[in-house]
Amino acid sequence: MDTQYFRCKKIYLFFYLFILTMLGLSACGRQKGTADSTFWAESNQVAVADFQQMKLPITLEALEQYATDGKWFYISREKFGPESTTGQVLRSRIQDNFEGEVFISKENAFCLALAVDRESHCFVLWKEENNISLEKYGESGERIWHVDQDVSKWTDIGRNNSVSSLAIAGGVVTTDGRLALYTHGTDTIVALFDENGNLLQMDAPKLECLDGIVAGKDNRVYGYCITGEGDPVLADLEKPESCYVLPFRPLNVFSGQAAGLKPAAVQGFFCILCF
Question: Which of 52, 76, 188, 246 could form a disulfide with 111 if both were Cys (CB 3.0 to 4.6 A apart)?
Answer without folding.
Answer: 76
